[in-house]
Amino acid sequence: QVQLVESGGGLVQIGDSLRLSCTASGGTFSRYAMGWFRQAPGKEREFVATISRTGLTTSYADSVKGRLTISRDNAKNAVYLQMNSVKPEDTAVYYCAAGRTLFPSASISEYDYWGQGTQVTVSS
């Protein structure tokens, strides 16, 4: 059983930067592909970014390409989401997820473990 805890959310202004962190425990972190998803009020949870077990492969939603960067540190059992040039549409609860999938995936169903989420609010 893998436990995931997100941190780093908060209230920021348009154009600011923010780094979300997710720390894992209870499993072998390097065996899992990791993903970030988000859910805005009244909307379904959506894919943001994913990273392979080794960190060599990443993939992003079109809406965040060039602004958000996913990375991981297997020695620290952590995955990060660097958010630059944030926009009001980035406002959401952000969740990290771990999946045994061999390849990083944008599909929610490929992930086995989820954190509780961290709120990001972009003020205009």
Protein architecture, described:
The chain is mostly beta strands. The chain contains no helices and 11 strands. The strands form 2 sheets. Strands 2, 4, 5, 6, 9, 10 and 11 form a 7-stranded mixed beta sheet that branches. Strand 5 and strand 6 form a beta hairpin. The model has no long low-confidence stretch (mean pLDDT 96).
Question: Strands, helices and their partners?
Answer:
Elements: E1 3-7, E2 10-13, E3 18-25, E4 33-39, E5 46-51, E6 58-60, E7 68-73, E8 78-83, E9 92-99, E10 113-114, E11 118-123
Parallel strand pairs: 2-11
Antiparallel strand pairs: 1-3, 3-8, 4-5, 4-9, 5-6, 7-8, 9-10, 9-11
What are the key terms here?
single chain, 124 residues, mainly beta, seven-stranded mixed sheet, four-stranded antiparallel sheet, 11 strands, globular
User: If you compute it from the alpha carbons, what radius of gyration comes out, rounded to the nearest whole angstrom?
Assistant: 13 Å
Helical fraction: under 10%
**SS element count, helices:** 0
Task: Report the strand count.
Answer: 11
Strand content: over 45%
Low-confidence stretches: none
Q: Give average pLDDT, whole number.
A: 96
- The rounded distance between the terminal residues' Cα atoms is 40 Å
Overall, the morphology is globular
The biggest sheet, with number of strands, parallel, antiparallel or mixed sense and barrel status, is: 7 strands, mixed
SS content category? mainly beta
Order of helices and strands: EEEEEEEEEEE
Summarize the structure.
With 124 residues, this protein is mostly beta strands. It is built from no helices and eleven strands.
